[in-house]
Design brief:
By secondary structure, the protein is an alpha/beta fold. The protein has 14 helices and twelve strands. It folds into two domains: 157 residues, Glycogen Phosphorylase B (Rossmann fold), CATH 3.40.50; 153 residues, 3-Layer(aba) Sandwich (Rossmann fold), CATH 3.40.50.2000. Helices cover 41% and strands 19% of the residues. 42% of the residues are buried.
Length: 324
């Protein structure tokens, strides 16, 4: 089978799926991000070549390609990864907030032969917001490979990871993370993530002295920090899954997350849940995590290895492709 793999940005979880498909099939790839009509001819050639078109996200960027694929009788799989099926007008987030974009994205999903969701929460949003036929949806959790087990003692340090931009101040809880740090003046708080606009200046202005806003750092530096930190915080208002949480849990960080959407699915009973937008509660849950026994970190790592293994996603993804 020949697969034409479309994506917007090659994020780590997109790359994993690409590598899974390349392990079993002949795959050509193309990013459609902001290329529009200039990319139509290239995509047409790729679709003619392929038996199946695989799209990571139900993005409007893929609209022409999906229509062409349908007209040419190609099979279509779309991964509904988050924003594409979300309806959260209160934080100005999601393609399902109404208007022309909502209509066109729903049409894209109707053309697909199979939709892959990445969590039960994500599946529910796909059905409720995008009105996707439940029979077309297969839920496959993200998968994570083994990382070396940290054997160094944990430091009383609190970490979050997220791209620093205005839209993430609320959605990813970056502002809440920085504001709550003042209640722990002797505990280092590290916000790791690339700066893509000047929102970092706002965060620096409200930050207490124990907050470090690192900007971009490489994977080895992130691994070193997560291997030492005791607590990982994800104060997001929405997550279709929460890959950063799962990765931190692999390093035995104790997770503190908002009790919304897919985050409780990932954390289970291996961490602490806070009420979104309630910094007093977030403060309390971080305090509980800082004072928890380190064995909870062991439990967090075990949960990811057992429930969200890369081998499970590999098997399930290849089965879906074969069946389609």
């Amino acid at each position: 089978m020949k697969i034409y793999f479309l994506y917007t940005v090659m994020m780590s979880f997109v790359k994993k799926d690409l590598e899974i498909l390349q392990s079993a099939y002949e795959v050509r790839t193309e990013s459609n991000y902001r290329k529009g009509i200039r990319n139509l001819w290239k995509n047409l050639k790729g679709i003619i070549w392929a038996d199946l078109v695989f799209c990571w996200f139900g993005s409007l960027h893929f609209f022409p390609s999906i229509v062409m694929a349908k007209l040419l009788g190609r099979k279509i799989i779309i991964v509904a990864g988050g924003y594409d099926v979300v309806k959260l007008p209160e934080i100005d987030y999601g393609n399902m907030r109404g208007g022309l974009i909502t209509t066109l994205v729903k049409f894209i999903y109707k053309l697909a032969d199979c939709i892959i969701s990445i969590s039960e929460s994500n599946r529910y949003e796909a059905i409720e917001n995008a009105k996707i036929d439940p029979l077309k949806i297969t839920m496959i959790y993200h998968g994570f490979g083994m990382v070396q087990e940290p054997n160094i003692s944990r430091q009383r340090m609190v970490v979050t990871i997220g791209e620093v931009r205005y839209s993430n101040l609320k959605r990813k809880g970056l502002e809440d993370f920085v504001r709550v740090a003042k209640y722990f003046p002797d505990i280092p708080f590290k916000l790791i993530g690339k700066w893509t606009d000047d929102s970092y200046k706002f965060l620096q202005n409200i930050a207490s002295e124990n907050v470090e806003i690192t900007g971009f750092i490489d994977e080895s530096a992130i691994s070193s920090i997560l291997s030492k930190a005791k607590v990982y915080v994800q104060a997001s208002r929405h997550e279709g899954f929460g890959c950063s949480v799962a990765e931190a849990m692999l390093y035995k960080c104790i997770p503190v997350v908002n009790n919304v959407f897919a985050l409780p699915e990932v954390v289970g009973d291996a961490g602490f849940l806070a009420s979104p937008g309630n910094n007093e509660d977030l403060r309390e849950q971080i305090n509980r995590a800082l004072n928890a026994d380190d064995t909870l970190g062991n439990k967090a790592r075990k949960r990811i290895l057992e429930k969200f293994s890369l081998s499970k996603r590999t098997e399930a993804l290849l089965n879906v492709v074969a069946n389609v």
